[in-house]
Every structure is written in structure tokens, then in C-alpha cells.
Amino acid sequence: MGELTIESLYEQVRAAVPATGPEVSAVPVQVASGIRVLALRTPTLPPAAHTNVYMVGPEQGPVAVVDPGSPYPEQQAILDAVLENLPIAMVLLTHHHGDHIGGAAALAERWNVPIAAHAATARRLAGILEVTQLIEDGETIHGLTAVHTPGHAEGHLCYELGAATIAGDMVAGIGTILIDPSEGDMVLYLASLERLLARPPTTLLPAHGPPIADGPAKLREYLAHRMMREGRVLASLTADPTPLSALLPTAYGDTPRMLWPLAERSLLAHLDKLSRDGRARDDGSGRWSRL
Ligand SMILES: [Zn+2]
Questions:
Q1: What's the gap in Å between 47 CA and the centre of ligand 1?
Q2: How confident is the model over 36-81, as pLDDT tens digits?
Q3: Extents of the domains making up the chain
Q4: Could you report the per-residue pLDDT of 3-22, keeping only the tens digit for each?
Q5: Distance 200 CA to ligand 1 centre (A)
Q6: What is the distance between the terminal CA atoms of the chain, rounded to a whole angstrom?
Q7: Which residues contact 257 (CB under 8 A, 6 or more apart)?
Q8: pTM (predicted TM-score)
Q9: How far is the CA of 169 from the centre of ligand 1 (A)?
Q10: Distance (Å, rounded) from C-alpha 151 to C-alpha 185?
Q11: C-alpha 43, offset from chain centre
Q12: 85-106 tens-digit pLDDT
């Protein structure tokens, strides 16, 4: 099947689906006390076309810059102009995906600041981007509390500040979150949604799309949606081992066909979970049956 990365999956979908997200202004907007956001164009999953760069700290700085994800020089120039007169403390990453790290090296080099992330993110980025400072679950960094939320990516961190949580790719304000089994894990993702839900309620600041004022409601909606999907995946299985492509019409019949390359990855993530739950079985050649 070749090298399967989330970036290559995003690319397949971008070829088929135009980005339909709103035009985003390239001016920083205050979204919470001590947090401003700038949306920069990135190669991400449509309909989203931008990744939010969050700037955390007082108006005059120093600021921590979270997920400078754009690889495009003219987008990086917009960020540079915004940061021109601000001292920068560090670059923080939520996780290793290309649409979150694309501008990190350029920014860290320009301002001579560390790049900080979870150890699992640093491992994933070995040879691509040097993470110079590791962040552990529960650690306070630049006034933010790091919360380890694996699932979409192994080293995914959210960052809490007062009544706001920088949520990375745990939830999306536009589009959906992909759990791809090559680097994600549905069991961990569900546990991470529950973990965020158990913490004091906050506004969620996603990497894609606008702030989500009622964070707990969104987390419950995501959990319910995944449970609904698991039910459909289970309903698509029979006693006969069946390939993924033949399960899709039942499990993802409500999803546009052009998204089926992604749906198939998500289907596999659900099946992996069901297999660990003792409810589904892989016959060793990619055909699945009910247990
Ligand atoms: Zn991601």
C-alpha cells in the first residue's frame, strides 16, 4: 500500500474535495484571556484550509506560539509581521502532523527559541524537525497546563489556560478529526475525549475553525458520534469474513463517496477497537467478521 501517512490521506482528499471554509482574515483575534489566534493557510484536511496559530501571553509578550503550521513562505511572513515587535518565548506543538509543524523550524530559527512538544511527538519528528524541549503530562509551561491526549496522534497535547483549552486536533471547529490506525488509536482517542470532559469545563480552541464556547457539549457530541459509528460498523459485520471495501456502504453509507478513502481508515480504527473489545475478528488477510 506504500507509505501511508495522514498527510498523504489529506492530499488524496484535497484532490477530490475543494476547501469550502470561510475566508479567514490574517489579523490576530483575541479568543480568550491571554490568547490570540491567527489562521494561516496550510495543506490540511478539507473543508478546512487553515491551521490556527495561537499566541499565548500578554499583549506586549513574551508569547508562546502554538502550532505554526504553515509551510508557505507568504503565510509565514504574515506571522513574522504579527510577531515583529513581540518577544517570543518558545514554539509549542500539539502534535507532529505536517499542518501543525510546517512553519515551526523557520520560526524557531528566526527568533532563536526552543521547540517544545511531547516525547512521542519528538520521536515521530526525528529527522524532520528537532524538538529541543520535552513536555510531560500535567507540566506547566509558559503558564499553560499540558494535558496528554493521545488518540489522533500518540504524543498529542492540549494546553489549558484558565477557562480555555488549546485543543489541537482533539476536536474541530470546521471539518472532522481523522483517527488513522497507522498513527492513531480509537481506544486512546475516546479515553482522551473522556479525560477532557472530566476536567473543568472550558472553551475549546481547535486547530481548525472557530472557538467552541461550550466545550463539554462538543466533547459529548464527539463521543456520541463515535459510538453511533461503532454501532454502524458492528452492524456491517457478519459471520463471513468481508473486506473493508464491502463494509463501507453499510458502515459509512451516510458519508460522501469521495471521502471513502478516509472513511476506510476510520473504519479500520473502529475495527481495531472492536477486535480488542472481543467483538470483531480479522482473518489475517484484511477481511473482518463479527465475533
Ligand atoms: Zn493532526
A1: 14
A2: 999 999 988 888 889 999 999 998 889 999 999 999 999 999 999 9
A3: 6-226, 238-290
A4: 567 788 788 777 776 666 55
A5: 24
A6: 27
A7: none
A8: 0.93
A9: 5
A10: 5
A11: 13
A12: 889 999 999 999 999 999 999 9
Give the whole-angstrom CA distance, residue 3 versus residue 71.
21
The active-site residue, picked from 99, 169, 185, 272, is 99
Domain 6-226: CATH superfamily, name plus number: Ribonuclease Z/Hydroxyacylglutathione hydrolase-like (3.60.15.10)
User: How many whole angstroms from 283 Cα to the centroid of ligand 1?
Assistant: 30
Neighbour tally for 138: CB within 10 Å: 9
Under 8 Å between Cβ of 134 and 118: yes
Q: Please report, for residues 25, 33, 194, 254, 270, the alpha-carbon distance to residue 187 in angstroms, rounded to integers and kept in the order given.
A: 37, 33, 11, 23, 9
CA distances from 31 to 38, 55, 80, 122, 266 (A): 10, 10, 20, 28, 31
- pLDDT tens per residue, range 202-212: 999 999 999 99
46 CA to centre of ligand 1 in angstroms? 13
Q: Does residue 169 carry a catalytic annotation? A: no
Residue 122 in contact with residue 155, Cβ under 8 Å?
yes
Q: How far apart are CA 172 and CA 208, in angstroms?
A: 6
Q: What pairing do the DSSP bridges indicate for beta strands 50-56 and 35-41?
A: antiparallel
Q: Which three cell numbers stand for residue 174?
A: 470546521
